[in-house]
Amino acid sequence: MTAPVDAGEVRRLTRELLASHPPATTDRTGFLKARFDAGLAWVHYPAGLGGLDAPRTLQQIVDTELADAGAPDNDPRRIGIGLGMAAPTILRYGTDEQKRRFLRPLWVGEEVWCQLFSEPGAGSDLAALGTRAVRDAGGEWVVDGQKVWTSSAHVARWAILIARTDPDLPKHRGISYFICDMADPGVEVRPLRQITGEAEFNEVFLTGVRIPDSRRLGPVGDGWKVAQTTLMNERVSIGGARIPREGGMIGTAARTWRGRPELRTHDLHQRLLTLWVEAEVARLSGERLRQQLMAGQPGPEGSAMKLAFARLNQQISGLEVELLGDEGLLYSDWTMSRPELVDFTGRDAGYRYLRSKGNSIEGGTTEVLLNIVAERVLGLPSEPRNDKDIAWKDLSR
Amino acid sequence: MTELTAQPGQDEPAPMPDLLYSEAEEDLRAAVRALLADRADAPGVIARVESGTPYDPRLWKALAADIGAAGLLVPEKLGGQGATYREAAVVLEELGRSVAPVPYLTSSVVATETLLALAARDGAVVELLGELAAGRRTAALAVPFSAPAADEAQPASAVTGRLEGTITGVADAATADVLLVPTTDGLYAVETAADGVTVEPLVALDLTRPLATVVLHGAAGVLIADASSAVPAVRRGLLVGAGLLASEQLGIAEWCLTETVRYTRERRQFNRPVGSFQALKHRMAQLWLEIVSARAAARHAAGRLAADGPEALLAVAVAQAYCSGVAVHAAEECVQLHGGIGMTWEHPAHLYLKRAKADSIAYGTAGRHREVIAELVDLPAP
C-alpha cells in the first residue's frame, strides 16, 4: 500500500506539471493531456484515469495553482454533459476498456458528449421511453427511435443513450444503457427552434443505428439504474456552483437599477429588494451545501438549490423586462442560431426572460422534483402508481 | 455608495463563516431539547399561559443556570460561558421549536448584549451581567418589541435621576427584575420593584411572550451609560436580538413542517393518507425548500454577528427579511393542512402561528429590514 495522497503531494505534482509543461510555451491540448496523465484532471478519480484516488476536496489546490499560473482549462461549460453526466456514469458502470477509451478525450474536450434520454412522449415520465434497441444475430444492437431536447447534439462526438430492450417487462425494467456514436450514419440531428428564436437544443432521429455490445454500460435491462447515476449527477451539477454576491441574474438587474435612476418606481423597488434577499439567501444555501459536501455530509439540499434558482431566474428576469419599460418591448435578434452554450448574461433581458422559462422544466420539472422532495426527504406517501406491474407494451400511450 | 456596495463578481470582504453545526452545538441542542420536552410540552405550555403565569421558574432555572444557556454570550471572566452567537442561536432554534415561554431572547440575548456593548470592567453593569449570566435575575430592554435596531430609541426623560415616561409593548417586562431604560441622558438600570415603576400587562397576540406597558413616574434608576455610549449599545442589543430571532423563527418553521408531515401521513381521507395528495405534498416540499434557505440565512447572521461591521448589519437584515416570512408561512400552512383540528385551542398549532406572527414584527418587520438592505447595498428607492 502506498501512502494516501495528501495536500502536499497534490501541490508537488501540480508544480511538477507546470515545470515540465510551462503554460506559456505548451499548446492548450498538449497541456490538458499532460494534466490528465499526471492525475490532476479530477484528483478523486482513480490513478491512470486522470486522478490520484485522492479526496475530492484537494481538487481546489490544483485548480488554484493552475489558475494562478495562467494554465489553460478544459472549458468545462462547453463539455458539461460529458464531465457532469457521462464521466461519472462511465466511471461507475464502464468496463476498464471503456474507461480507458472515453475518459481522457472527454476530459480534455477533444470529444464532446450529449445525452439521448428525453423523448417526445417521455419527458418527466422518462422511463416510458419508446426508442427500441434490438440485438441482431451478430450480437450488435440496432436502435430506432426519436430523442428530443438534446443539447450539444450538433457538436457531439458521443452520446449516452437509454433505449428499450424488452417491451414485455414493466417500463423501468426493460431499459438498457448505451454509448452511441453520433457519427453513425443512422443518426440525424435536427435543430429544435425554441421560444427564444435560437436552436440551443436538437431533435435526434435514430434509424437503424448500430451499436456494438462493447458499448453497452451496465447489464442488459439494468439501464434505469445506470441512468439514476447520470441523473443524480445532473442535479448536482445544476445546483452546485459557487457564486459571489450578486453573481447570478440578480446582479444584472441590480446594475440596471443603479445605473438607470429614471426607470425606478416604488413597486419595482419593493419587488427588486425581495428578490435581492431571496437571491442572497439562495447563495448562502449554496454555500452551506458546499460546506456540507466539504465536511463529507452530502444532503438533499441540492434539489432545493435547483428549484430555488429556477424560480429566481424567472422572477428576476421578468422584473428586469418591466424595469426596462420601452426597451423591454424590444428583442435583440430573432434570427435562428445554434449556439454551443447558453449565454444568459450576454443577451438582453427579453432573452433571459424567455430562456429562464426552461429552468423549471430542464433537469426535472419543478413539479416532479417537489414530489421527489416530498417522498424521499419528507417521507410522505407516494402517489398511487398504476404502471408499476404492467408490461411497457401494454401501457396506454 | 456605501463601502459595502456589492460589486458583481466580488465576494464579501470577510471570509464566509461556518454555516454548519459543530458537535458541541449539537450536544447543547440535545440538552435543551430534552429539557424542553420534559418541562415545556404543548399541553403544559397551553395550561400555563392560561394560568396567567406563563413562566415556569423551574424550567428557567434548569435552562439558564443548570445548562448554562443564560450566560452563553457573557465572557467567562464576567461569570458566563464565553460561547458565541452560534451557540445562542441553537438554543433559540430549540426555544422556537417548543414555543417555550422563557425570557431567553429578551434577557439573555438583548439585555445582555446591550450591557456587554458598554464594555464596563466593574461596577453595576458587571454585577448585573453576572446575575443575568447565572440566571438569577432577568432584565428587559425597555423599548417596544417592534423597535428595529436602525431606529433611534425613543427615550424616556430623566430629571436628576428621576425617570418619567411610558413605554408600550415591552416584551417580558412583567417578569423582569431589572429594566434597562434608554433616556435622553443615557441608559438607566431600574428595578421593576422600585417606587414609581408600574408594569401593566397587555393582552398580547402571542400568548407565549408577554408584553407590558412600562410607566415610570419619578422612578429611581442607576445611570449605567451616558448618552454617547448608550445609543450604540442599545442598537447593538437590538441588532443581535434581530439576528438571533432568525434562529427562533427557523425553529418555529421546523416544528410546523415536522408536525404537518407527521399528521398528514397518518390522517386518512378518500381512503388514502392526505399526505399522499400532490397538492399537499408540494406545499410541504415548498416549506422544506424555504427552511433550507432560512437555515442558511440564520446561521450566516449568527456567524457574522461576531464582527461588528457592515457585513453583520447586512447578514442580520437579510436573515430577518427572509426568516420572518418563512416562520409565518410555515405556521399558516400548519394550521391549514391540519384541517379542522388546526383551528382548535387544544392543538398547539395556534401557539406557533401567534408566535410566528408576533416575531415577524419583533425587532423590525421584513419591510424595515429591506429598507436597511437597500441602503447597505446601494439599491435606492426612487
The sequence of SSEs of chain A as H and E is HHHHHEEEEEEEHHHHHH
Q: What does the main sheet of chain A amount to?
A: 4 strands, antiparallel
Averaging pLDDT over every residue of chain A, what do you get? 92
Largest pleated sheet of chain B:
4 strands, mixed
Distance between the termini of chain A: 56 Å
Q: Counting H and I runs of at least 4 residues, what is the number of helices of chain A? A: 11
Strand percentage of chain A: 5-15%
Net shape of chain B: globular
Q: Report the uncertain regions of chain A.
A: none
The secondary-structure class of chain A comes to alpha+beta
Note down, in words, how this protein is organized.
Chain A: GO terms for molecular function: flavin adenine dinucleotide binding; oxidoreductase activity, acting on the CH-CH group of donors. The complex is a heterodimer of chains A (397) and B (382). Chain A has 397 residues and is of the alpha+beta class. Chain A folds into 3 domains: 7-108, Butyryl-Coa Dehydrogenase, subunit A, domain 1, CATH 1.10.540.10; 113-220, Butyryl-CoA Dehydrogenase, subunit A, domain 2 (Beta Barrel); 227-378, Butyryl-CoA Dehydrogenase, subunit A, domain 3 (Up-down Bundle), CATH 1.20.140. Chain A has 11 helices and 7 strands. In chain A, α8 packs antiparallel against α9 (301-324) and α9 packs antiparallel against α11. The termini of chain A are far apart. Chain B is of the alpha+beta class and 382 residues long. A 4-stranded mixed beta sheet of chain B has the order 1-4-5-8. Chain B has a 4-stranded antiparallel beta sheet with strand order 2-3-7-6, with no helix packed on it. Chain B has a two-stranded antiparallel sheet with strand order 9-10. Chains A and B meet through α7, α8, α9 and α11 of A and α7, β10, α8, α9 and α11 of B.
